[in-house]
Amino acid sequence: MSPHKVAIIGAGAVGSTIAYTLVLKNVTTEILLVDVDQAFLEGQVLDLSDTASVSSCKIKSASLKEAGQADIILVTAGAKQKEGESRTSLVGRNYCILQSVVEGMKPIRSDAIMLMVSNPVDTLTQIAQELSGLPMAQVFGSGTYLDTTRLRGLLSHILDVDSRSIHAYVLGEHGDSQFIPWSTASIAGRPLIDIQEFQKMDKELVRIKVAGKALKIIKLKGATHFGIGACASDLCESIILNKNQIRPLSVFVPRLGCYLSMPAKLGTTGIKEIYEIPLTEAEEELLQASALSIMSVLSRV
């Protein structure tokens, strides 16, 4: 494996969890951690360096300028989502933070891949692409990858099938307007709508549980970070190893005019292809509504 440098902007719960999972995967040679709180950052670096017994990955604190020269740049910095707060309401607070981060990294390495994790991820990914000037294929967000993982986990419990064998997505906004295109969901080539257990299932309840899981976790423990940490590190691995995996990510869809989640192929150069799956008329309306919701937030920035 050729040397790879991953920069993580924001060393809090999410950023440090991504760093920790990357260390355990042992797929990158160096991790650069960046944070405005220098004392806290030093503590995180010292703590993470104690994982040397299971990984050869080196961890160091860095400046924004140094982060701008990494192969992969993950942005997790931003205001925390509060109990009962929607992700879109974070945009005002996090826009200023993102602007400062991107400007601080310039000039950004021309072939860098920028992965946005901060919320609202679709809106901030579009802003990050515009501010950075990087090609759209090199700037994408974690999108509904975690929501899709939650959906497949819940379906796995209901249908008694390994979640990795369930093909179902959450698409659109990583937020209130996200939707599940049930018409495309399948197991072993069989549409879910043809399976008896699925027909008995309360699909609206499943949607509510998936969409509301983050807020439930926040209410119980104050923050979410393990799930997104696992997802973000998996995306880094896909880039570094050129796995060409299909993941539901926040990507720019020209016909909709904004970033939102669609299945996309991810490899060394970033987003290689976007797969618009066939939708029913009702599902297409939900997709259009989701795009309008995101555009509405963008218009207020």
TrEMBL record:
Residues covered by the Lactate/malate dehydrogenase N-terminal domain: 5-141
Domain of life the protein comes from: Eukaryota
Xref: Pfam families: Ldh_1_C (PF02866), Ldh_1_N (PF00056)
Gene3D superfamilies the UniProt entry points to: Lactate dehydrogenase/glycoside hydrolase, family 4, C-terminal, NAD(P)-binding Rossmann-like Domain
Domain Lactate/malate dehydrogenase C-terminal positions: 144-291
EC code(s) of this entry: 1.1.1.27
Pathway participation: Fermentation; pyruvate fermentation to lactate; (S)-lactate from pyruvate: step 1/1
Principal EC category: oxidoreductase
Keywords of this entry: NAD, Oxidoreductase
Ligand binding (NAD(+)): 10-15, 35, 94, 117-119
One biological process term in Gene Ontology: lactate metabolic process
Entry similarity comment: Belongs to the LDH/MDH superfamily. LDH family.
Protein name: L-lactate dehydrogenase
Source organism per UniProt: Absidia glauca
